[in-house]
Amino acid sequence: MTSLEIESPRSPYTRRKTTRSNYELYGWIFMRASGVLLLVLIFGHLFVNLMTGDGVHSIDFAFVGGKWANPFWQVWDLLMLWLAMLHGTNGVRTVINDYASKDGTRLVLKALLYFACVVVVVLGTLVIFTFNPCPPNAPAELLSQTVCFPS
């Protein structure tokens, strides 16, 4: 076959290399499990933020400050962040493996992907756990009255 001919669709598939691990199987299972858990986390997040209280009109700095003063919501948002980033990273990794034909290109793209994932997870985790709902010198009308000025 010359380089201008299209390979027959009935020709046997040849793998690039053989692997002896179940890494792709575990990645596939992770995508299904994390997808189901993300549905629960995201719809719970949307319900609490949009359907309770005044809905979207109540979301402001004080709302987030009051929410993240509770460790339950910190862990909820942390799980949502980690699972979303790992789920998305695994999906993009699969796309890179499928469409990047050169080993060097695949290596660079996946290195950038993993770097971006680590940066977002680390910074997001820091924001969730170091968030101060009552920053000094902040205007009182922006702060949560129940968290910063308990009666």
UniProtKB/TrEMBL annotation:
InterPro entries, per database record: SQR/QFR_C/D (IPR034804), Succ_DH_anchor (IPR014312), SuccDH_FuR_B_TM-su (IPR000701)
Keyword Electron transport: yes
Single biological process term from Gene Ontology: tricarboxylic acid cycle
Any Pfam family the entry gives: Sdh_cyt
CDD domains: SQR_TypeA_SdhD_like
Entry keywords, A to Z: Cell inner membrane, Cell membrane, Electron transport, Heme, Iron, Membrane, Metal-binding, Transmembrane, Transmembrane helix, Transport, Tricarboxylic acid cycle
GO cellular component annotations of the record: plasma membrane
Transmembrane segments: 25-48, 68-86, 107-131
Pathway annotation from the record: Carbohydrate metabolism; tricarboxylic acid cycle
Biological function: Membrane-anchoring subunit of succinate dehydrogenase (SDH).
PANTHER family: SUCCINATE DEHYDROGENASE HYDROPHOBIC MEMBRANE ANCHOR SUBUNIT (PTHR38689:SF1)
Protein's recorded name: Succinate dehydrogenase hydrophobic membrane anchor subunit
UniProt organism field: Xylanimonas allomyrinae
